[in-house]
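ENTRY TYPE: protein
CONTENTS: sequence, structure tokens:
***
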Amino acid sequence: MRKIFPIGSHARCAKANSLDATSAPRRKLLAAAAGASILSALDPALRAGAWAAGSDAPEKTEVKIGFIPLTDCASVVIASVMKFDEKYGIKIVPSKEASWAAVRDKLVNGELDAAHVLYGLIYGVQMGIGGPKKDMAVLMSLNHNGQAITLSNQLKDKGAIDGAKLKALIDKEKREYTFAQTFPTGTHAMWIYYWLATYGINPMADVKTITVPPPQMVANMRVGNMDGFCVGEPWGNRAIYDKIGFTAETTQAIWKDHPEKTLGTTAEFVQKYPNTTRAMIAAVLDASKFIDVMANRKKVAEIIADKSYVNCPVDVIDQRLEGNYDNGIGRVWKDPDYMKFYNEGMVNYPYLSDGMWFLTQHKRWGLLKDDPDYLAVAQKVNQIDLYKQAAALAKVPVPKEAFRTAKLIDGTVWDGKNPKVYAAGFKVRATNGGGA
């Protein structure tokens, strides 16, 4: 037990003399140990802010990051393959997963340290509506744009090539129409629900919706299990490549520069390994910068096309990665709102309003029965302070505001200012027409 000596006592003086005689290396060691002891006693939030004082070594040097075979897993893969991680003292080990449910379960039970993961999945787990309830963390956004709503060629043959004509067909020919998304609280579910509802089709009452893992979408459409789906690239383009479907809408046409995947983990991991978490964000930011240089995108497509990652022909990935779109039914265009990974840091910042939007849609579709404290939840989940520290390390500019404004395809404006009113303001929602 450490003795406390009275001020002015002989023992205190003797101890001081003893410290003066200690070698310089010994004093440094003692100082480091004392610093570590103080840091370990701090609140995790304070400890995360202490890194600049010299305590920024990653607590864990190897991190296992899960991903689903999609084009937007690129920044995690590139951070590892091109060794951007080494700059920050960590090794990223990408782990290919079979489904978003598997990603969720492995994050929650600690088998994965972090993951390339759907924004809405993280919020669903946080709220206990997308699996077991657990406090989660959005570390950064990985990409904007780059998903697509694909309809089958059978619908095309009946003239249903856009939302309005699909609505007319559903009203005219009564049968069960089936549309797939990738996870009930996830981004793809929210995009296809939003798109259908924009044209007066209630996804909870007028059609059937099912959950299918991204790499299995095309195979399921090929055998006739669905009329349409929403998923990330390259699977929308793959349906065109395989001549089984066409792009009815890109998600960037639903919401320009919409949030999509995140680098997500548990709040527990952030609290236990704040320096490691910061290093992960910084490494992925460096990879994001690299990918957003258009001249690098062919190389990126070649890397992620490998069977270890997306397992898809390079050309199928690269076309839309470079913004070259063909909807499969005659329209070819250069899309300025292609999938972006960096965009001078605008992509990566974890805007509070982005997280809140997913909660409004969860409420709209009956996944949340009551309005949560939208802002408080977003402030808890989105790790803005930690992101800012990592952005400083990676020399990435940070937006001035944690809210942003967007006008969506149905004309509604989202700015995060009144989420409860926004969530209740949609004409088509789960409470209409016997929905969930």
